[in-house]
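Sharing a chain and its predicted structure for anyone who wants a worked example. Both blocks are below, sequence first, tokens second.
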Amino acid sequence: MTRLSNLKPILLAVLIVVGFCTQTHRANAAGTEVLTVAGGCFWCVEADFEKVRGVHDVVSGYTGGTLANPTYKQVTRGGTGHYEAVQIMFDPDVVDRARLLDLFLRSVDPTDAGGQFCDRGNSYRTAIFVTGAQEKSLAQQARSRAQAELGQKIVTPILNAGAFYRAEDFHQGYYKSGARTVTRFGVITRAKAYKRYREACGRDQRVRQLWGAKAPFAGG
């Protein structure tokens, strides 16, 4: 009995710690929001937004279309209706949705309805995906601010969010991957392949041309 009595305070302390950790995990999960956007090549959008303070994670994927569980080849070939998109998981106490929307619109060419930079076709168009009236209102306000600042018509649509399909593991974190891949430059890391692609595609050059010093990620 004495040994059991001695164990009770220890067990109680363990249960308190476990309970605290569980509550903290739930609070963190509850404090995370998601913004879904399409900005051309999802490697680039992922690379840009993972730099933003308050963003926990960015996942590349496909959304906006009708085909369930699409592959990269199916989406880029066309006919699925899907966009290359990302889901941005963020802490609204650190960076709010309005700020992320402003950053997004200034990190793309929102005047281009046919794709982005060197990537052409429906899967590379820009879009903002929303759930509910509040998110839609924030997106509309952000688009209006960007259009007034740019002085050109913004064609990026605001669409109702639907199913989001995570892209193949190959695409996640491509911009920073040390895995080696075969390219026209030879066998190099994915990170180097990404950098050469981004430069050759003219993404940063066009964004700087449009937004000047207000381009948040040009050069990334």
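Comments welcome. The radius of gyration is 21 Å.
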